[in-house]
Design goal:
- This protein has helices at residues 8-14, 53-61, 155-158, and strands spanning 70-77, 82-83, 88-95, 100-107, 119-133, 139-153, 164-174, 177-186, 191-199, 205-207, 213-216, 219-222, 237-238, 243-250, 260-264, 266-268, 278-282.
- With 285 residues, the protein is mainly beta.
- The chain has 2 domains: 8-158, Nucleic acid-binding proteins (OB fold (Dihydrolipoamide Acetyltransferase, E2P)), CATH 2.40.50; 164-282, Immunoglobulin-like.
- The strands form 4 sheets. A 5-stranded mixed barrel has the order 1-3-4-6-5. It has a 4-stranded antiparallel sheet with strand order 7-8-9-14, with no helix packed on it. A 4-stranded antiparallel sheet has the order 12-11-15-17, with no helix packed on it.
- The longest helix is centred in the N-terminal third of the chain and has 9 residues, at 53-61.
- The protein is elongated and about 70 Å long.
- The two termini are 42 Å apart.
């Protein structure tokens, strides 16, 4: 991932992106990492309706033609944010799945906390376009966006929202080893199985996510690790009395193609106890 601009702050200030807002005042845009935080107060855009996806794609090739238009999008920060006394400056991919749609973003809040690789939800206005050189000497064009608000979000919200969620809440108990299938989320690029495990035996227990399988009709799906998502998985070594929970990821599965069977395996250090595979039936209707 190459950084196109030598200094984002200088780029934004050269375009005068923050000059219209001046210093921090009661009217200045604000941002928050907290869900449900109040939206910023800002001057209304010439067209307050955010660009459609198609318009956003057009804007990426000719940002100046869309000056004054409102935007709302998800992105991933891919360089360390810059700050000065006036604000926070970011460079991000508005298409993080493909590492494309490079944008530079200014926020009139130098105290805003965000890190490289964070996913963000941005609401703002297109102020201008920036032309610069990449590391190969080629010309790069990017929109300069003044943010009214920025919220740090997770991977699922930004990149892989669920298109269908099935709440299951089924608990199976073998010898005090309990597995609960909480829910299954279907997204365009992946399927997420949420489980919780409680060891109520007197021995150490084991659970390995790679032993979990999904069966749909005559198809079998194996666990797939999504390194971009970095989903928190259940712990593999579980002491007596301990409960763990997490997400087991799979590839994309069509929820309209039939019911699922989720099959998981668990065991303990007490070899006198017998364990069968834990099998959960998930109705997709």
């Amino acid at each position: 991932m190459k950084r196109f601009f030598p200094t984002i702050a200088a780029s934004m200030l050269a375009l005068g992106v923050l000059s219209a807002c001046g210093g921090a005042t009661d009217e200045a845009p604000v941002a928050s990492n907290d869900a449900g935080a109040a939206e910023a107060v800002a001057e209304p855009a010439a067209n307050a309706t955010p660009l459609t996806d198609a318009e956003f794609d057009q804007m990426m090739t000719a940002p100046a033609k869309f000056k004054g238009r409102a935007v709302e999008f998800y992105a991933q920060v891919f360089v360390e944010p810059e700050k000065d006394e006036d604000g926070t400056y970011l460079q991000a991919y508005a298409d993080p799945s493909n590492y494309e749609k490079n944008v530079i973003i200014g926020l009139n809040d130098p105290s805003f906390t965000v890190n490289s690789q964070d996913y963000i939800h941005v609401k703002g206005t297109i102020k201008d376009e920036f032309k610069g050189e990449n590391m190969m000497g080629g010309t790069v064009l990017a929109p300069a966006i003044m943010a009214d608000s920025i919220e740090v979000v997770d991977y699922v919200t930004a990149v892989s929202p669920a298109i269908k969620t099935i709440d299951v809440g089924d608990t199976q108990d073998q010898n005090g080893y309990k597995i609960t299938l909480e829910k299954v989320e279907f997204a365009e690029s992946e399927t997420r199985v949420y489980v919780s495990i409680k060891n109520e035996t007197e021995s150490n227990a084991s659970f390995y996510t790679f032993n979990t399988k999904i069966v749909q009709g005559s198809k079998q799906f194996e666990q797939e690790t999504n390194y971009n998502a970095n989903h928190e998985e259940p712990q593999s070594d579980i002491l007596p009395g301990i409960e763990t929970e997490g997400i087991i990821g799979f590839g994309a599965i069509d929820p309209e193609a039939g019911d699922l069977r989720v099959i998981a395996e668990g065991s303990t250090d007490n070899y006198d106890l017998d364990f069968d595979p834990f099998e959960f039936v998930v109705s997709t209707k």
